[in-house]
Amino acid sequence: MTVFDRVKELANKQSISIVELEEKLGFGRNSLYSWKKKTPNGDRLTKVADFFGVSTDYLLGRTNDKTALSPKEIEDIGQMADRMINGLESENSVNFYGEPMSDEDKASLKTALLVALEMNKKRSKQKD
């Protein structure tokens, strides 16, 4: 399946034509059709992936997981987890059995938060 085939499939699921998609994204007419034979540049590929809420890896056929997270989504989740941990620390409420948490325990908690946030983001993408 080519990049174009995947884009066409996603467009069909949203009941829009390739021409409409090109217009919405500000692409030239028939530019997406060229993807039948060549790989698009990164910027355009990212723009299409963001429009459909899928990863560029999905469009390129590297994965069949439409809910794979983009690097930006992963970065956003990391920042959210950092804010959550920092918020807990600033309130002196990060305790483990009544004792302040060690740096190792905080790192473990952050890892657990990252996993939970990523799972939640993927579930929300599946609903779309």
From TrEMBL:
<dbReference type="InterPro" id="IPR001387">
    <property type="entry name" value="Cro/C1-type_HTH"/>
</dbReference>
<feature type="domain" description="HTH cro/C1-type">
    <location>
        <begin position="7"/>
        <end position="59"/>
    </location>
</feature>
<dbReference type="InterPro" id="IPR010982">
    <property type="entry name" value="Lambda_DNA-bd_dom_sf"/>
</dbReference>
<dbReference type="Pfam" id="PF01381">
    <property type="entry name" value="HTH_3"/>
</dbReference>
<dbReference type="GO" id="GO:0003677">
    <property type="term" value="F:DNA binding"/>
</dbReference>
<protein>
    <submittedName>
        <fullName>XRE family transcriptional regulator</fullName>
    </submittedName>
</protein>
